[in-house]
């Protein structure tokens, strides 16, 4: 009797790794495209800025916006120092492609002020300020696994500090229950850095298994940036983790297919083992069987083996289908359609359709107003829950 083992091929679907992406021209199409490190500034800088900014702006109109979205045309000299400094950062960053900046402006006394600067549709800037010293949103560090049904928090050379746990809490808190369900039992792993040091986090999937890594660099960006509204700023590391949740969402159909395949694989291998055992029994006992019984048993074994072979063929076909689902699949296709010819929400999102999806999704959960402004159709797509219904 021939032994027939069926083994699944290994498949890795990791985030990133796309290499150099498309860089297209245009104005104001990306959310917060530039990371700005802010040095120690003295009071004199802010004093001089009040005099220089009107000249730098050169008649570009500035609208201040309150928490209710009411806008007022404001002369640059009348802006508060944090708003002036935010505009200064935007003007000197030289990034015409950035549509929106969420900055934690560093004042002379080292306090931070969350300020959003956006390009106004008709030209000029819209500036919206939070309170001086406004703290980033806090989460709860305890009971994450129990509260959200995720897998264990494990440490591989880096610690799940209270702050890292809080960021994870804020991330999971931002999700809808069906989205959390996708993360059920998924381990979250802390490491100092990834293979690619530019990554702040990583979604890693191998067949049915999936895990999310959080690296040190993600937590470092929280000093100078935030995400969301300046009245209730979220740490930008939340968006980094939400990006990985986005990968988990678009990979879900493929992962479910792999999980089913792993169960099928086990059942096929069980059948193979049983059939092999029956064959061995036959080989051993066939002398004691009557001619007719021997013929019957042999025919039965052969029929069974034929059936297993057909099952195996079907399994191979399904493996190919699962591979296709991991590569793309209907969920990413539906996103591609709704994105149309628009740019991704960030430069990083331009590297691939998967990264574009993850960037849009992370903005949808961390700063929905920003996504609605940049890509209203994609915002509506997530509102309709299409990222969960496509399979
Ligand atoms: Zn990614």
What ions, cofactors and ligands are bound? zinc ion
Into which percent range does the helicity of residues fall? 40-55%
Helix-strand pattern, N to C? Answer: EHEEHEEEHEHHEEEHEEHHHHHHH
Subunit arrangement of the protein: single chain
Q: Let me know the average pLDDT.
A: 88
Question: Judging from the principal axes of the Cα atoms, what is the shape?
Answer: elongated
Radius of gyration (CA) equals 28 Å
Give the count of helical stretches: 13
Structural class: alpha/beta
Biggest pleated sheet = 6 strands, mixed
- Low-confidence region ranges: 1-26
**Cα end-to-end separation:** 41 Å
Describe this structure in words.
It is a single chain. The protein has helices at residues 43-57, 81-93, 144-148, 162-173, 177-182, 216-220, 236-285, 291-327, 330-339, 353-366, 368-374, 376-383, 386-389; strands spanning 30-31, 62-65, 71-73, 98-106, 112-119, 125-129, 153-155, 188-191, 201-206, 209-215, 226-227, 234-235. The protein has a domain at 30-129. The chain starts with 29 loop residues before the first strand and ends with a helix. The protein is elongated and about 110 Å long. The chain contains 13 helices and 12 strands. Residues 1-26 have low confidence and may be disordered. Bound molecules: zinc ion.
